[in-house]
Amino acid sequence: MSKTAIIIGGGVAGMETAGQLNRLGIEVVLIEKQASLGGHLKNWDRLFPDRRESQEVFDYLEKGMNDGISLYLNATISDIREAGGKFTVILEDGRELSSDALVLATGYDLFDARKKEEYGFGIYDNVITSAELEEFFRNNKQKNLFEGVQSKRVGIVHCVGSRDEKVGNLYCSKLCCVTGVKQAIEIRELMPDAEIFCFYMDLRMFDRHFEEMYYEAQEKWGIRFIRGRLSEAAENPDHTILVKVEDTLTGLPLKMKVDLLILLVGFVPSPETKRLAGMLGLKEGDDRFLCPSDEHLLPNSTDHPGVFLAGTLKGPASIAATIVDARAAALQVAEYLVNGER
Amino acid sequence: MKIEGKKQIWNDYQKEIAEDHFFYVRSCIRQNFFPGSEKSFLRIMKEELKKDVYENPSHTTCSGIGYHTDIVPFETSMTMVARQFALMTEAGYENFTTSCITSFGLYSEVLNTWEHEPEMEEKAREFLYKATGREFKKPKNVSHASDVIYRFRKEIAEKGKYRLVNKLTGEPIRVVEHIGCHYSKMFPSKGVGGAEYPYVLIGMIEDWGGEVIDYPERRHCCGFGFRQYLVQANRGFSVSCSKKKFDSMEPYQPEMILTNCPGCPMFLDRWQYAISEMEGKTYGPDGTGIPVLTYEELAGLVLGHDPWDLGLQVHQVPVEPLLDKIGISYDPEKKFKAADGSDIGRPEAPVYLKFYPEQA
Amino acid sequence: MKSFGYTITKDRQIDYDANDRRLIEYVEGIEPSIRICMECGSCSATCTAGHFTDFSIRRLHTLLQRGETLHLRKEIEKCMLCGKCQLVCPRGVNLRNLILIIHQALDKLHHDL
Ligand SMILES: Cc1cc2nc3c(=O)[nH]c(=O)nc-3n(C[C@H](O)[C@H](O)[C@H](O)COP(=O)(O)OP(=O)(O)OC[C@H]3O[C@@H](n4cnc5c(N)ncnc54)[C@H](O)[C@@H]3O)c2cc1C
Ligand code: SF4
Ligand code: SF4
Ligand code: SF4
Fold first, then answer.
1. Distance (Å, whole) CA C34 – CA A30
2. Closest ligand 4 atom to Cα of C61
């Protein structure tokens, strides 16, 4: 009899884990709470570091969704039960799905920028988030961001909701720096005469090609970098935004007016992940993301036999890293189902 | 500006404010700076709103100024705070209301410290007992007097004789508010509306008919800073802070500044005079300044109290242009007369800032 | 004007919108390599002049970027044009040229700076 695995969450991690397991001959059930697959990927326009279309990545993942995978969309999980090594996932509509293994791939949430009250998101007219900018790019590929605006100055604020104990997030979201630099270049491409500033504390361009993007942003695109965390923003009478920052490299406070302020919102653990983790007794770290049983050696297993983790529910990660992680998870699951090892 | 976003934050920061039976403690400095303010509060509360407000003549300073000037150590301050609580307890009250923002900040700080470090509370109890033989209960509710006025702002509007509206044009009066640093910057959850978009004064302005102006340096300190003001040579720092605010609000042409704290109206008012004398600069139209009022003074005006009974003649920025706009009646002849009709003397007219009554 | 025994101080805050950025635009137009500075401080760490005065070639350049040009002429006089800064710069910023062009720019733009 063939073994089955249930995968919860149909983002990059869930789709890739499902596709891989299916190719390994395991029967897969994929449960997604939204109406379509893809998770956050579906909201992004072009991806760092090479600015390929996000659709290409989605198309690849979708190809893996063949007939061997039973897909449950718009599905809300109300309970998870376990008996004799079998898991039963109960959906809100009463349907029951059972399997020999469970993979959590429920991803992350975006930080709610409203919590940084002093930046005025949701209050000032010209403050948006990096996620909203991606949406703008998706819908208005060639359009200028500033219809009718005279001067064109854009401020990009790093670490919004990350590295910030006041909002309860001590960790770094890892990918907002590169996202900011990518978006700065994209804005400049649309508006060659815009002045673009990134306000950062450190530029964490940790991965392959990232540092080169930073170099390119400076050399080719003339993006300017001011080291200092935004202390507050205020709205001017003409709806431009006045930002205050310490220019820490000159040691002086600085103010400037920008036409648009973009907040690089970070990753936060999702309440849905917490809810499911609670049902299964999984452990979370100090940062509230889930912890595998061994971060070096068993990055996809949990202390709960038969339950596995894949993707950004363990903390911020790029798509490339998520894909690798999903494949590793698939292998771990397969090994468990075949050899009974975790 | 999206008002919905602000409303969301205002909803997030609502605090409990007692309904009646207040133990009221005064500020050390307000009776000199704005002598009608506390009197106006008591008159509104007792006579107009029929509330029970109790004052104990043996209450002392909270020591906030000394504490913020690094002269009085925290242990001493918290013991003095404990003594105020003891007076409240002895009088049978549970709702503590302060006239001063810095006191309010200090009471909040002491209570918060006791919550996190119960051994400090034990210490305070021990010090107080040894020194005075008194014991105390912690208040059920601590509010600033502006919280209380905020709570009854609609009643005041209903009973009011005037609205903050330009009588000629029908336009709302344009008001900037200044909340005072110690109201909620230290403990955002203790202030109505929090620290970034505090609502306590805005609620009054809106309900009394005015329009609130948000300007870029709204959150900047007025410049009091205690050590900065108390030492004469440091006062340049204080006046520069206020000037930064005036320069930032000027393009919005505010018609009035509403304040919350003992220090802020002092500095926002007096420094307009000092700046005019030092640099010839004035911030209102035609050489006038921007009138600065405390919330009790404004509440009094709305209720139809006589401006000179409210002590508005001691303001250095003349308030007459504002009174005229709203159509508040007053007798210019009585500006510098005491209640018994005797002359209280008049200040030397400033060189640049327009003085009222205007000299012939 | 009256004196009350204290003075109104000018704000230290860099007011980017009020600042005159013609100088940096001129300099950057001729020496675009200054754009790629990553503020590492290698140049000022080794700078001959910086060891004996409060001169910092890195800071000078950053201030220039913000349009802060007060005392600039006096500042650059401290540079000995030895070129060590340029030798250590990991990004190959042509710092000697920066100094030379600032001289040039100050003379050229002086009448309206
Ligand atoms: C602004 C921004 C831009 C980015 N740009 C890039 C980029 O250009 N390149 C790049 O490599 N990376 C980028 N990333 C990172 C990228 O978004 C992540 O690597 C990727 O989305 C991780 O996929 P995931 O499947 O782990 O999580 P998610 O994308 O969050 O997917 C989780 C899925 O699980 C579903 N789910 C959650 N809970 C449940 C539940 N209880 N039941 C059923 N389903 C559930 C969700 O609906 C969702 O579909 C960016 C991140 C941000 C914040
Ligand atoms: S990646 Fe950059 S912007 Fe994001 S949290 Fe880390 S340092 Fe801040
Ligand atoms: S050339 Fe000038 S700036 Fe560079 S190291 Fe020499 S003295 Fe310093
Ligand atoms: S050494 Fe080069 S990169 Fe480093 S601060 Fe100096 S100019 Fe900039």
1. 53
2. 7
Nearest residue to A309 via CA among A108, A171, A172:
A108
Is residue B299 assigned to a domain?
A: yes
Cβ atoms within 10 A of the Cβ of A101, count?
24
The DSSP call for residue B303 is T
Q: In whole angstroms, what is the distance from residue A125 CA to residue A283 CA? A: 41
CATH code of residue B351: 3.40.50.11810
B15 domain-assigned: no
Q: Judge whether residue A134 has pLDDT over 90.
A: yes
C28, C35, C40, C96, best to mutate for ligand 4 pocket (most atoms within 8 Å of CB): C40
Name chain B's partners: 3 or more CB pairs within 8 A: A, C
C45 lines ligand 4 (CB under 6 A): no
Same domain (yes/no): B205, B247: yes
CATH of domain A113-267: 3.50.50.60
ipTM of the shown complex: 0.94
In which residue are the tokens 């600033």 written? B144
Please indicate whether residue A58, judged by its CB atom, sits closer than 6 Å to ligand 1. Answer: no
C15 neighbourhood in chain A, CB within 8 Å: 255
For chain A, where do the domains classified as CATH 3.50.50.60 start and end?
A: 4-107+270-339, 113-267
In which residue are the tokens 């919350």 written? B260
Question: What CA–CA distance (Å, rounded) separates A105 from A311?
Answer: 6
Q: Distance (Å) from the C-alpha of residue B243 to the closest C-alpha of chain C?
A: 9
Contact B143, B96 (CB under 8 A): yes
- What pTM, to 2 d.p., does this model score? 0.93
- HSE, CB side, 13 Å, CA atoms: give it for residue C63: 19
Contact state of A252 with C39 under an 8 Å Cβ cutoff = no
For chain C, count helices (H), then strands (E): 6, 1
CA B280 – CA B50 distance, rounded (Å): 47
- Residue A149 to residue A236: CA distance in whole angstroms: 14
Q: Decide: C49 in ligand 3 pocket, CB within 6 A.
A: yes
Task: Give the closest-approach CA distance of B297 to chain C in angstroms.
Answer: 29
For chain A, the distance separating the N- and C-terminal CA atoms, rounded to the nearest angstrom, is 20
Contact A218/C at CB under 8 A: yes
> How far from the centroid of its chain's Cα atoms is residue B317's Cα?
16
Classify residue B4: in a domain, yes or no.
no
DSSP B213-280: ---TTTTS--S-TTHHHHSGGGHHHHHHHHHHHHHHHGGG--SEEEE-SSHHHHHHHHHHHHHHHHH-
Q: Tell me the average pLDDT of chain A.
A: 95
Mutate: best of C16, C39, C40, C59, partner A, most A CBs <10 A: C16
Q: Are B264 and B226 in contact (CB under 8 A)?
A: no
Report pLDDT digits (tens) over A54-102.
999 999 999 999 888 999 999 999 999 999 889 999 999 999 999 999 9
DSSP B358: P
CB-CB under 8 Å, A257 with C65 = no
Higher pLDDT, A254 or C5: A254
| Closest to B20 (Cα-Cα) out of B40, B41, B50 | B50
A234: which strand partners? A242
User: Which superfamily is assigned to A4-107+270-339 in CATH?
Assistant: FAD/NAD(P)-binding domain (3.50.50.60)
Q: Which of A106, A132, A158, A204 to probe ligand 1 with, by most ligand atoms within 8 A of CB?
A: A106
Atom of ligand 4 nearest to the CA of C57: 6
In the block, tokens 């002049």 appear at C49
Whether A257 and C17 lie within 8 Å, measured CB to CB: yes
Domain that holds residue B250: 153-359
pLDDT digits (tens, 9 = 90+) for B171-208: 999 999 999 888 988 999 999 999 999 999 999 999 99
